[in-house]
Amino acid sequence: MEGLWRTAAGLDPKPEDYEGVDFWLAPERAGWLTKQGAYIKTWRRRWFVLKRGKLFWFKDSFVTHDSKPRGVIPVGACLTVKGAEDVLNKQFAFELSTNRDTMYFIADSEKEKEEWINSIGRSIVQHSRSVTDSEVVDYDSKR
Fold first, then answer.
1. Residue 68 DSSP code
2. Does this model's pTM top 0.90?
3. In a structure prediction context, what are the per-residue pLDDT tens digits for the chain, which is 143 residues long?
4. 8 A C-beta contact, residue 81 and residue 68
5. Segments of 7-134 assigned E as strands
């Protein structure tokens, strides 16, 4: 999990973190959010792109094939995404959490916040690790 938040903190995202994802083409969702830093708790405005189970962020909105993400969050490893105005005492705030860490974001409006929460929530469900057929034990067949 440390790798998730190291990546999420924008600390040297590696090409394998985003390899095979054409983040510059037809994202599921894209837009400006303000993100709290992982170590220095300052707020910075970044361009976010949600695509194929990964939430990328960039310094600006001009994203091309040659762009390098400042950070990547594999949302399938996340457990919840929900409003966080009461936690941060900031309007339009929401949080994205694993079982050990939480990241905070601020949208530009209530509508944007709800759209991001819904999009990320759908992505969590679609990309979370689920039980595979090889992991299912059929006790009835062993009689």
1. -
2. no
3. 444 545 555 556 676 667 778 888 999 999 999 998 877 889 999 999 999 999 999 999 999 999 999 999 999 889 999 999 999 999 999 999 988 889 999 999 999 999 999 999 999 999 876 544 444 444 455 44
4. no
5. 29-36, 43-51, 54-58, 71-74, 80-83, 93-97, 102-106
Spatial separation of the C-alpha atoms in residues 44 and 109, rounded to whole Å: 16
Residue labelled with tokens 């090409």: 15
DSSP 76: G
- What number of other Cβ atoms are within 10 A of residue 73's Cβ? 26
59-64 long-range CB contacts below 8 Å, 24 or more apart?
61/30, 61/32, 63/23, 63/24, 63/30, 64/24
How far apart CA 53 and CA 51 sit, in angstroms, is 6
